[in-house]
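Protocol step 4 of 6: structure prediction from sequence.
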Amino acid sequence: MRRGWKMALSWGLRCCRRVLSWVPVLVIVLVVLWSYYAYVFELCLVTVLSPAEKVIYLIFYHAIFVFFTWTYWKSIFTLPQQPNQKFHLSYSDKERYENEERPEVQKQMLIDMAKKLPVYTRTGSGAVRFCDRCHLIKPDRCHHCSVCAMCVLKMDHHCPWGNCPVFAQSSMFFFSSLWPACFLSAL
């Protein structure tokens, strides 16, 4: 009975954390929507009197706005690249590794398994990098994202403003969304 209560509490906390992690994204969306209203309706449609000037302002603004929206969307929803299946331990290797109690033998087992993989980066003590949560031998530049609960190739950090890990493919979209954001904020 008591264990079920703890599991329900843990599930509730994970659910709340997952919902609250989208608050910064919601803040950005609300700021962008407010700026859209302020620029299009208040400035262009109400304040500017010349119809030709309104059209030029609106076309210019919408081109940049659409580019910003697309790149921000892509930076949030581009799926992280995960290591291949060959980096995951087989079921028998995983059982052998978990049943072994001596750390030096575990270290040697990982070295033997990593010989056939393209892994060059080691830990400070010379051991093969291994993720205990995902049960895989980490390839070079692979890190475990604790928020997403997965190993991500070429990961930099988990960005709270996009609620996603920043990695090689998503950083291109992120940096592409910065210049229109700066330009739109200057207008």
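Step 5 (inspection) to follow. The chain has a mean pLDDT of 86.
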